Amino acid sequence: MENKTYILKNVLLETGFEYQDHEVVKTKTGLFCVEVENGRIKSINANDPNASAIDAKGHLMLPAFKDMHAHLDKMLFGLPWQAVSEKRKTVKDMIAYEQKMIPEWLKTSVERTEKMIDFLQGYGTDFMRTHFNVDPTSGLNSLKHLEKALHNKKASADAELVAFPQHGLFYTDTLPLLKDVAQMDAVSFIGGVDPYTLDNSIEKAMGAIVQLAVDHNKGVDVHLHEMGESGIKTITFLIDRALENPQLRGNAFISHAFALSRLSTIEAERMAERLAEAGVGIVSSVPFGDIIMPIPILRKHGVEVLIGNDNIQDHWNTFGSGNMLQKANLIAQLYGYGTEWQLSRTLAFATRYKLPLDDNGNQQWPKVGNQADLVFVDASCSAEVVSRISPVKSLIHKGTVVY
């Protein structure tokens, strides 16, 4: 449905918390009519079930979901099923495989990226932070194909782009390409990957990444799988550079940051304090098993923790669901967030911290003037949405009804 003025009726909105003995025991809701005009919410009124309007059928309206770590340029989605190979165990093994396969993947990457966006939208996501390969094998083609796919989907999805030197800055001759890409307006972040493992120098690789970001007014989002000392040193390096360059505050991130999972509680508390002081965020796909990230400690100290699906179907991993609610549910299970209040707060990881109610139960979304990025879910409240991974029934992006 094209963007125009319209009214939605029978829209379920959260209005507050119900308390018993000072505990939140229930989320209050009500039915409303919501008017959308020019991509924004024009009015929110008492419900009129007889209005000539689009019927939301009592589904709960929530902010549309945000996937903050994706690789839309090189998913195998749309190709025949292929599990991961046990022969490729290291990042360098993966690089060698990519150098062989990228020319073939690029042949169909535009249409497959569009299919992946459709897939994510089916779970209520309308915004993605997506990395794209910058390397001698891809050249600028990964970016060109990604931009074409995003242009074709511009009416229903938004994205911010991270230039990602997957094959290392110096392990392969990628730095000249990254310098070219850093000058492009379409690119929001300069990325990197495991500087010690791939490029044999934290200072050399991270120094180049940060300098490009500062010189061209970009953010930083670096993949860091390294455990132990090299991982901590890389995180510390970015913290120090962000403190020296205030423009990076709130715009510098470490993706994965698995080294944090090996810290003691006291060490994690200290690191979280430093990350918060520098405005450096963590982007996580919420690993589990032998890697449990200290997300509660990070959040306690005010560190921005963004969540994404990362791999959905590719040569690295095939277990990504594409569902941001599933990620929020995993966080709730891993960290024991089981109460009505805790579950309702956990939805924030799917919406990049936009919630219908504040911590005290005051209604803060939607408001007149808000951009109409909306999902409609078959559930009674946010807590149920997270706990049950409730089905998404409709998505609206900037006022345009996607489905």
Automatic annotation (TrEMBL):
Domain Amidohydrolase per the UniProt entry, residue ranges: 204-403
Annotated Pfam families: Amidohydro_3
Domain of life: Bacteria
Residue ranges that the Swiss-Prot or TrEMBL entry lists as coiled coil: none
InterPro entries tied to this protein: Amidohydro_3, Metal-dep_hydrolase_composite, Metal_Hydrolase, Metallo-hydrolase_Enzymes
Record Gene3D superfamilies: Metal-dependent hydrolases, Urease, subunit C, domain 1
NCBIfam families: PRK06846.1
Protein name: Amidohydrolase family protein
